[in-house]
Inverse folding.
């Protein structure tokens, strides 16, 4: 009953049909213009977004796998140019939608699973075992058993896991396929810290103690690492040291076939690097008190003013960076392999050893693949002189590890003032707030400008949220249902189509 009254109210409003107008209705006090894919523009033109939210609730996640396919293909092209055997294993934890698992299957690339449930779902969707790795941070014996039974490579993090794997393989009378996760690489005068993996300086003795006479129960197929951060030179150090390790392992008759360089391929959410620089410049000025704040109550985003000195580091993803994706991979592959002189590149070192190079990108291959749309439920003036715009959404629905999502949202207006010829909205500035009952429940810390206002019923769109932002932190606190996930496909004949992703109907 209530629903039909609500839809009737909607039906009476005139529709917006103005391409690109969604960019004009909202920007940061210091703007950070989003990169928007053509499929997103299509969805936001006309009344698709409004209909989808009406039907599936707010917020709603929309995904599209065309950019995913393009991103993976362009990594493969770099590898072809470098002449190496190469395989992408998509890190599934970065987005839960099964649309991407299905895309992996049709691309015949690989997938990296981080839990028993992720693995089960991938196996159910008939991904071949050769195309799966399990890198779960915590591995129960059930998970290890499942990997062994289904012939999936297990990335071994520690000796307890290795012993468990050997024991279970023995009990099952099968051979477990494993890769050793390595960390602690030397890099210049420092070492690369990680809580994961076996220290590179102990790796040889661990192998000698636990793997040399264990060929009945385990097959060491690969050496693996995954580093924090996006520095290509750290990867060059790690790859070089892993190649040396593989050389040593091969001399003791271990037939290591692949080197897996993990994920962390960088991407950019913004096209304009100068905007990003300007943002941090203005933010520092605001923290020093030399301009008005550009974040909620001068939230530092990792920076603090200590006696008029800015200390700390931005606690945010580098929303603009260079090089990214395939260019970054190319930089790594064409760099010199440490210890082999300037004539030997990483690619040449991999090629001459007949190694397969694997990688596990998550975020970067989802670049352009998703957006999150939420409905404005209220707009109110705070006594401090700014507006609070309340969305039917909570902060876990557009959140990864960054202090803030440094990309301007888009706004789809319910009523187009210009079409109506009346001004129902007046310009305003303020913050987007969410549904959790805490003072800190902001959807974005950054202050937004709405040059022609914003009002109940308008839609706020967070662009490019497929990598981590949609699902990594999502929670059912307050008993809010999780957001629905729809696949948006645009088809020449049928136009735009929205289908519910199977993740919302499976019950693992
Ligand atoms: C998270 C993770 C990845 C993916 O990292 P991205 O930054 O999304 O590319 C790959 N491998 C492992 C082991 C991970 O934990």
């Amino acid at each position: 009953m209530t629903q039909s009254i609500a839809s009737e109210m909607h039906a009476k409003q005139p529709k917006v049909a103005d391409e690109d107008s969604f960019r004009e209705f909202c920007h940061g006090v210091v703007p950070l213009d989003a990169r928007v894919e053509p499929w997103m523009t299509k969805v936001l033109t006309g009344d698709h977004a409004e209909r989808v939210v009406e039907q599936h609730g707010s917020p709603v996640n929309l995904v599209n796998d065309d950019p995913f396919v393009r991103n993976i293909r362009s990594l493969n092209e770099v590898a072809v140019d470098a002449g190496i055997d190469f395989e992408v294993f998509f890190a599934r934890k970065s987005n839960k939608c099964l649309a991407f698992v299905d895309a992996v299957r049709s691309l015949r690339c690989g997938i990296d699973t981080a839990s028993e449930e992720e693995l089960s779902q991938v196996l159910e969707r008939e991904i071949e075992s050769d195309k799966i790795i399990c890198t779960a941070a915590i591995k129960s014996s059930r998970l290890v058993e499942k990997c062994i039974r289904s012939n999936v490579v297990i990335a071994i993090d520690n000796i307890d896991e290795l012993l468990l794997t050997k024991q279970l393989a023995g009990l099952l009378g099968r051979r477990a396929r494993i890769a050793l996760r390595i960390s602690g690489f030397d890099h210049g005068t420092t070492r690369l810290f990680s809580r994961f993996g076996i220290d590179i300086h102990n790796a040889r003795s661990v192998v000698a103690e636990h793997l040399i006479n264990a060929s009945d129960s385990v097959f060491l197929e690969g050496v693996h690492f995954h580093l924090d951060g996006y520095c290509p030179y750290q990867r060059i150090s790690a790859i070089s040291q892993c190649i040396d390790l593989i050389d040593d392992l091969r001399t003791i008759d271990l037939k290591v076939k692949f080197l897996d360089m993990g994920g962390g391929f960088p991407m950019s959410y913004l096209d304009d690097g100068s905007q990003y620089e300007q943002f941090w410049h203005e933010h520092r000025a605001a923290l020093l008190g030399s301009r008005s704040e550009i974040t909620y109550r001068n939230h530092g985003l990792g920076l603090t003013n200590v006696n008029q000195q800015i200390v700390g580091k931005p606690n945010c993803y580098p929303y603009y960076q260079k090089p990214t994706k395939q260019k970054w991979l190319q930089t790594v592959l064409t760099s010199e392999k440490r210890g082999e002189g300037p004539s030997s590149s990483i690619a040449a070192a991999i090629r001459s050893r007949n190694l397969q190079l694997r990688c596990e990108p998550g975020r970067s291959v989802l670049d352009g693949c998703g957006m999150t749309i939420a409905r404005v439920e209220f707009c109110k003036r705070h006594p401090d002189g700014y507006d609070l715009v309340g969305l039917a959404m909570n902060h876990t629905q557009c959140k990864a590890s960054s202090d803030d999502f440094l990309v301007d949202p888009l706004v789809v207006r319910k009523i187009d003032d210009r079409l109506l010829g009346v001004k129902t909205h007046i310009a305003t500035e303020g913050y987007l707030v969410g549904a959790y009952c805490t003072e800190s429940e902001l959807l974005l810390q950054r202050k937004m400008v709405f040059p022609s206002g914003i009002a109940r019923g308008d839609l706020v769109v967070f662009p490019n949220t497929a990598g981590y932002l949609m699902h990594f932190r999502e929670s059912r606190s307050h008993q809010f249902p999780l957001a629905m996930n729809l696949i948006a496909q645009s088809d020449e004949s049928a136009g735009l189509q929205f289908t519910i992703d199977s993740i919302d109907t499976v019950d693992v």
